[in-house]
Sequence to fold (383 residues):
Amino acid sequence: MTHAVRPGRLPHPAVAPRQGASLTLAYDQTVLRIDLDDAPAAGWLAEFLGPWFVPATRSPDWRLTVAAARGLREARAARRPRDAPSRACFALDQQVVALPAWTEDDGIVVDDAERSCTLVLGDAHVRLLADPTTRRWRFTLQWLCHEIAATRLRRTALDLHAAAVATAGAAIVIAGAKGAGKTTLSFHLLRSGACRWISNDRAFLDRHAGAFRVRGMPTPVKILAPTLRSFPELRCALAALERPYLHALHEVVGQRDAGAAPSDTEFALSPAQLAHQLGIVPLDAAPLGAVVFPEIRPKVAGFAVERLAAADVAARLWQNQYGMASARREATLFEELDGGRVLASHADADAIAGSVPGYRILLGPDAYDDPRFAERLLERVST
Fold:
């Protein structure tokens, strides 16, 4: 059964929040006003989203209200109907997160029990009711910012599953499916000191000032065991906290009781934490210079670079759109509330492929053993 979205106006909380904070942030042309009754969470969010989401003075397109009071979330979740259907909420690369949803007088209610929060969606307004005894709801909060901003931008931009770095003022997009080696390749380029960091997992390509631009999207950075073995500095002097990416940088780095979990355990960092551990300065966007597609090849010695024809580049860009692996067809609730699902076209991929070079990077088991790997690779793809 299809359940129509019925936007509603949300009432303001009856009691003014104590020790709260407000943020007005812009991602491209989308402006979010975020009011929180949890000041530390506001500081964490601003740190997590910066420098990609920037302070803004324009009128907001969306309002987010966060209320973390004991019992508030539980009381709303208790009204969930037994037959509440799951609705698509957050579009990720590998899956679409669908959560139980139902309609009440003040909007569409979405229960995210796994992350200890409940959402009430109205007319360009989301109220997040959070369990104050946990930080799990902070993950949903950053999801909200991503989904709302991405819904607008992917109407005119190609939404890619890609890392991105900048060198000599131009961005190199590193696109590929999960496990292609995007993160490891970007980390080696960043460690060389020759590149700035734009994105780890998701990047938008759009037209800007007569050329194409790469804009990063801040997401938690999962560090797998092989990557950690190559980059042990990523865990150096970190406090042994569960889900460190839900904590502010000062809570995680340089604590006296800092301890290390086993080196073969995967974990995730916030963008600010990753930048600190690698000693790099993030960059929100840069003009597009090249697109590369890494491929791990066990039988290749070292690495090899192959120039691709424009048609091949366009096809690979289209195949590596963010969310393509999930094969989703339905719109998320946020897309429905914001006018429907509208995506960039094949023509956009063709235009990008015709404007910059594209390369296939074949990475053998010993590719990174070469101390001049980054220098040699950048020479090949930056000319």
About this structure: Residues 11 and 106 are 7 Å apart (CA to CA). Residues 1-17 have pLDDT under 50 and may be disordered.
